[in-house]
């Protein structure tokens, strides 16, 4: 496929005759084929990333980063952050309704209320997204995705103890162009996506992207007229307006809006009803029988018997302005952004055909951010960057329970609901940071980075728990210095080794569902991690093979966690925890037609000191020695890509990829019910592109073996189950096998 891409450096190649990009799935690469039939040469092209907020060759920077360009994302069917768990080592994605859980190297977030913060920082075009609903975005027309693994205590310092995900969308160019795609598939899938680039004048360009997606749910509901979960009813639009102010200054105004409706992803209860139900009484109930009828929930995956009309209404809006101004020896970048997110999700908490319980999750949040960066040019022995960062967020989050088990309590107490947990939180954060790299010689370089962060949170918990409204004012604040130091040795023209020591920090939080009178703390402390990492980045066999290896040890202090107790969820801190790991990424061009890629991640995690009152009964229990949540011992992936130019000038491309995820614990208690089974995922894609590259077709099949894949497990609140059972077991499954066809046109 002939295609120009500004992601790559434009370097003159002797006898260059043909450039064909071959995506290697896990990490973006390019295959450059030049020369005639005799003496043709294959080599991997350089990949330029902005992981350190300047354009650099990915193989020249001493950090563990995976970069996927537009071709890699297209070939792997990238459609959202959840797909990265199959493409990036040590990354896990899960969700409970509209709430997303992203973890890297075992570190993410469990307290997803407005009082908590993510451990993996999410960025869209350089803007930090504070709420988990921010994983909603228009994936179509994404230029590349960069995933930084490990604590980012300097340049991405806000809460990035696990790592950072940077989504970079395509920006306007000075050519009129566009594309449109239409997809049909299983479960009545209908999707239309399009993008158009408009050169308005010599100094003004625009780019607009829009999409609409509808799909029936792949979870069957045996209740007549009941909703079928795991459908799709989404639409969105994104626009960029670029201004060339002068030869040295430019400004880009961006806006992105996504709406996700329908039923959406819903968890399923995966345990039979107990013989004695705890919690508020159920009218007409004798043990577990309701009016003489036994309560039954379907325990099979993708099979339900729910009476509640489950639904979701999620919205995400982000508006930003980015100014780039170049001077003789340095540049200034200013990013100002405003964002809004909100969601409301209705869930059947009992998964039965009876009106026992309905959970309504709701959140509204708005944020304002501003960052200014001062960046040196790339010449000379010293390269530096410094800047200031400001973040302001206001969020409101509630979990409200309705239906018969709770309505009777609400009526007796004269409250809106029998149980309502949540409140308001306002967060203010600012930081100053600086990082410099000095070339001691042509082979050796040292990097030093520091960041000072000031975080403040103020919240009001407004909780109803089988009684009158409980109000608690809470405030937490912290001031911390984090950073990194690294050395790297470029022992050949295309290979280097590095060693780094980094410190990460995540601000403390507010336990929005805490009721102090029940013996739980209303807040919890900041989280810290010290990471030592060594790595190798190499090109072998005349740049046909790329091998990157990183080994690390993470030592955590006051690691944040959350557990669902009998009367609601509670967040706290583990004394100490350790994660040791090894990651390998490999790409290889086998011939002009075939390429392979592979990745593997190994983790050994342990809570070294974790003592906690799990049941809220005043009795501490010791969980030291247990595995960390979302940290599978082994994950790996393998992809094979074949590409052939046909006699008529068209191109045929085949992509087969598989990935394996080991068993995962989703709660620090490490109970058997907290553990998801291992699984293997297989995807197959076949692409055809016309000689003019105007027309294209893609036939795809995902989860080819139709294997059951548990994507998330959540133990619910104890009062929804029998006394002492620890709450219901909610499971979210990854999608079953899906087959579809996409037709595309470029102009």
**What separation lies between the terminal Cα atoms?**
16 Å
Q: How many H/I helices? A: 2
Q: What's the count of strands? A: 48
Tell me, briefly, the overall form: globular
User: Which assembly state applies to the chains in this document?
Assistant: single chain
> What's the story with the biggest beta sheet?
22 strands, antiparallel, barrel
Mean pLDDT reading: 86
- Low-confidence segments, given as residue ranges, are 1-40, 284-289
Provide the structure class: mainly beta
Rg is: 26 Å
Percent range for β-strand residues: over 45%
Q: What portion of residues is helical?
A: under 10%
Structural account:
There is one protein chain. This protein has 747 residues and is mostly beta strands. The chain has two helices and 48 strands. The strands form eleven sheets. It has a 22-stranded antiparallel β-barrel. It has a five-stranded mixed sheet with strand order 6-11-12-9-10. A hairpin with a 2-residue loop joins strand 7 (91-96) and strand 8. The radius of gyration is 26 Å and the shape is globular. The two termini are 16 Å apart. Mean pLDDT is 86; it is low at 1-40 and 284-289.
């Amino acid at each position: 496929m002939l295609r120009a891409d500004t992601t790559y450096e434009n370097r003159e190649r002797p006898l260059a005759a043909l450039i064909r990009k071959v995506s290697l799935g896990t990490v973006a690469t390019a295959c450059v084929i030049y020369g005639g039939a005799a003496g043709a040469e294959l080599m991997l092209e350089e990949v330029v990333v902005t992981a350190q907020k300047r354009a650099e060759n990915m193989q020249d920077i001493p950090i563990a980063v995976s970069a996927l360009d537009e071709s890699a994302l297209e070939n792997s069917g990238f459609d959202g952050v959840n797909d990265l768990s199959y493409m990036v080592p040590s990354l896990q994605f899960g969700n409970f309704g509209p709430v997303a859980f992203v973890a890297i190297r075992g570190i993410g977030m469990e307290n997803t209320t407005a009082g908590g913060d993510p451990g993996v920082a999410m960025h869209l075009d350089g803007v930090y997204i504070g709420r988990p609903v921010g994983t909603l975005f228009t994936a179509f027309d994404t230029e590349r995705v960069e995933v930084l693994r490990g604590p980012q205590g300097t340049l991405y310092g806000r809460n990035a103890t696990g790592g950072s995900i940077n989504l970079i969308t395509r920006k306007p160019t000075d050519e009129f162009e566009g594309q449109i795609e239409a997809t049909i598939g299983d479960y009545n899938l209908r999707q239309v996506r399009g993008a158009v680039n408009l050169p308005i004048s010599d100094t003004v360009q625009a780019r607009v992207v829009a999409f609409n997606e509808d799909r029936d749910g792949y979870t069957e509901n045996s209740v007549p007229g009941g909703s079928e979960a795991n459908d799709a009813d989404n639409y969105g639009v994104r626009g960029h307006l670029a201004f060339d102010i002068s030869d040295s200054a430019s400004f880009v105004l961006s806006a992105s809006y996504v709406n996700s409706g329908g039923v959406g992803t819903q968890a399923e209860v995966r345990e039979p009803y107990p013989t004695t139900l705890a919690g508020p009484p159920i009218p007409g109930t004798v043990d577990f029988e309701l009016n003489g009828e036994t309560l039954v929930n379907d325990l099979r995956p993708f099979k339900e018997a729910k009476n509640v009309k489950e639904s979701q209404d999620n919205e995400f809006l982000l508006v930003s302005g980015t100014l780039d101004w170049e001077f003789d020896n340095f540049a200034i970048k200013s990013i100002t952004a405003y964002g809004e997110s909100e969601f409301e999700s209705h869930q059947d908490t009992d998964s039965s055909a009876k009106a026992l319980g309905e959970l309504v999750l709701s959140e509204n949040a708005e944020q304002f951010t501003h960052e200014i960066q001062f960046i040196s040019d790339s010449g000379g022995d010293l390269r530096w960057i410094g800047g200031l960062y400001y973040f302001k967020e206001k969020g409101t989050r509630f979990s409200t329970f309705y239906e018969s088990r709770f309505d009777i309590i609400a009526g007796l107490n004269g409250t809106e609901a029998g149980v309502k947990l949540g409140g308001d939180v306002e967060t203010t954060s600012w930081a100053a940071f600086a990082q410099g790299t000095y070339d001691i010689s042509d082979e050796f370089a040292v990097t030093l980075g520091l960041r000072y962060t000031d975080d403040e949170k103020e919240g009001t918990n407004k909780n109803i728990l089988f009684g009158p409204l409980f109000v608690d004012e809470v405030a937490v604040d912290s001031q911390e210095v984090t950073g990194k130091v690294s050395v790297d040795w470029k022992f050949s023209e295309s290979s280097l080794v590095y060693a780094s020591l980094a410190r990460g920090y995540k601000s403390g939080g507010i336990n929005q569902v805490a009721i102090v009178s029940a013996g739980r703390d209303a807040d919890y402390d900041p989280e810290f991690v010290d990471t030592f990492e060594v790595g190798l980045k190499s090109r072998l066999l005349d740049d046909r093979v790329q091998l990157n290896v990183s080994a690390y040890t993470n030592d955590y202090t006051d690691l944040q966690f959350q557990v669902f107790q009998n009367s609601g969820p509670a967040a706290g801190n583990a004394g100490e925890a350790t994660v040791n790991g090894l990651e390998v990424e490999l790409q290889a061009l086998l011939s002009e037609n075939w390429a392979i890629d592979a990745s593997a991640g190994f983790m050994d995690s342990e809570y070294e000191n974790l003592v906690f009152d799990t049941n809220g009964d005043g009795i501490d229990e010791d969980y030291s020695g247990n595995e960390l949540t979302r940290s599978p011992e082994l994950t790996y992936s393998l992809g094979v890509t074949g590409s052939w130019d046909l006699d008529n000038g068209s191109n045929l491309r085949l992509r087969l990829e598989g990935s394996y995820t080991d068993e995962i614990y989703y709660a620090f208690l490490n109970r058997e019910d907290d553990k998801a089974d291992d699984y293997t995922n297989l995807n197959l894609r076949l692409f055809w592109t016309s000689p003019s590259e105007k027309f294209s077709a893609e036939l795809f099949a995902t989860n080819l073996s139709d294997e059951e894949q548990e994507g998330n497990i959540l133990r619910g609140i104890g009062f929804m189950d029998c006394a002492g059972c620890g709450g219901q077991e909610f499971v979210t499954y990854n999608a079953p096998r899906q087959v579809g066809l996409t037709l595309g046109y470029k102009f």
